[in-house]
Amino acid sequence: MTYKLALVGGDEFRRGCESMDDAILRATGKPNPVGLILPTAAAFENPRRAADNGVMHFKALGADARPLMVLDRSDAENADFVSEIESADLVYLTGGSPIHLLETLRESAVLAAILEALERGAVLAGSSAGAMVMGSWMRFRQWRPALGIAEGIASLPHHERADPDAVSRELREGAPDDLAAVLGIDGRSGAIGGPEGWTALGAGGVTVYREDGWERLRSGDVFTVAGDA
Questions:
Q1: Residue 95: partners with Cβ closer than 8 Å, 6 or more residues away
Q2: For residue 118, which of 3, 41, 98, 166 is within the disulfide window of CB 3.0 to 4.6 Å?
Q3: Helix-strand-coil split of the chain, %, nearest 5
């Protein structure tokens, strides 16, 4: 994988996320990175609070964090928002509705700008719904194609209460055949990936499901996904 991505299992911007999010900021390679918080998935909840929580959290960690209030499809085509992404070192997609987030971003000008930012070395992070839409597929009531940024991957957020054996059986029976791995990610935990593979982060763990079974990883554990560059 050539892009720098961070998939988070939920409960973003809360106490216990500091070490994980510090690692995400360090991945930008900038001493004072510009971070944009997109509360798109929270558009029907309290998007301003979601954005403000992220801004305060990342400012406390040393980032130049700002909200980017992309809430609907018209916002996703807004040239001013696109222009802001051009200077971002980190773009963070909050949790909320994965369907709304997917429909808002797919084939949009904002998504094109995010992909251009990734090409120049920025980090794209997503929590819960934000992580779900980044994969090749996402499971929300049913399996459906996602944005395909994290190629060959699907994310199952808020995974701390799941039974890995039961999930593994379900995935063998119903997951799309072209998935190399499904990541079950606990809240306040995540996985950060780049050209050298993936590293588990955070207070909880990451369960990596493959065709031949599953393994449970803790913060600092490194793993690869078939097809990673």
A1: 10, 12, 41, 42, 50, 127, 128, 129, 130, 157
A2: 3
A3: 30, 30, 40
Q: CA-to-CA distance for 177 and 154, rounded, in angstroms?
A: 12
Are 202 and 189 spatial neighbours (Cβ–Cβ below 8 Å)?
Answer: yes
Amino acid residing at 62? G
Angle between helices 109-119 and 98-105 in degrees, nearest 10: 80
Q: How many residues does the chain have?
A: 229
CA atoms within 13 A on the CB side of 29: 6
Residue 94: alpha-carbon gap to chain centroid: 8
Q: How far apart are CA 1 and CA 55, in angstroms?
A: 28
Token pair of 102, please?
A: 């997917």
pLDDT tens by residue, 90-131: 999 999 999 999 999 999 999 999 999 999 999 999 999 999
User: What's the pLDDT score for residue 210?
Assistant: 96
Say if residue 139's pLDDT is above 50.
yes
- What does the mean pLDDT of the chain come to? 96
3-state secondary structure of 126: strand
The answer to whether the Cα torsion of 69, 63, 29, 8 is positive or negative is negative
Strand order in the sheet with 213-218: 153-156, 181-185, 205-210, 213-218
What tokens were used for 166?
């039961």
Find all residues with CB under 8 Å of 156, minimum gap 6, and list them. 139, 162, 167, 182, 183, 184, 185
